[in-house]
């Protein structure tokens, strides 16, 4: 825990991580600062997609359900970790989706249920990410996160929906690139 906390503090100090309550997940859910940044990035995307919930409200829901959040992070990592063998990956994903869904079904707050299901929907709608890409020279993570999303799989997005959205997030900038076809022009 000490190393995770020190790494999170150093990342915030260097400006690689925002200073907000998502950082509490390092101690409360046993996540590292990059996993907390992943959840923060999805929350920022939800705000771009016009969720009715503020970041503070999303943080409240996340911090109140750290077991669900930790399971969501596991699901994301199983889906996209290039070090995992493709054999059996889908079975692991299906098992985790069922586990997360069961956990969310037990949530008593309707707003928390909606927020947690939004996370599940976004993780399932993510097609690609740079989350696991490391700088070849230093071995550090990229200073930004990007997700290629399939908007058709996200029911709460407004119409018209593009074919793909690429969401880029860092503490300094965030934005969405909309693609209405398979090739960007």
Provide mean pLDDT, rounded: 93
Q: Roughly what percent helix?
A: 40-55%
Q: Give the termini distance in whole angstroms.
A: 46 Å
Taken as a percent bin, the fraction of beta residues is 5-15%
| Total of helices | 7
Structural class: alpha+beta
Assembly state of the chains shown: single chain
Q: C-alpha Rg, in Å?
A: 16 Å
Strand/helix succession: HHHHHHHEEEE
Tell me what you see in this structure.
The relative contact order is 0.13. This protein has helices spanning 2-14, 25-28, 33-48, 55-64, 66-80, 89-105, 110-125, and strands spanning 126-129, 145-149, 164-169, 174-179. Helix 4 (55-64) packs across helix 7, helix 5 (66-80) runs parallel beside helix 7 and helix 6 packs antiparallel against helix 7 (110-125). The longest helix has 17 residues, at 89-105. A hairpin with a 4-residue loop joins strand 3 and strand 4 (174-179). With 185 residues, it is of the alpha+beta class. Strands 1-2-3-4 form a 4-stranded antiparallel β-sheet. The chain has 7 helices and 4 strands. The radius of gyration is 16 Å and the shape is globular.
Helix/strand layout:
Elements: H1 2-14, H2 25-28, H3 33-48, H4 55-64, H5 66-80, H6 89-105, H7 110-125, E1 126-129, E2 145-149, E3 164-169, E4 174-179
Antiparallel strand pairs: 1-2, 2-3, 3-4
Helix pairs in contact: 4-7, 5-6, 5-7, 6-7
Keywords:
single chain, 185 residues, alpha+beta, four-stranded antiparallel β-sheet, 11% strand
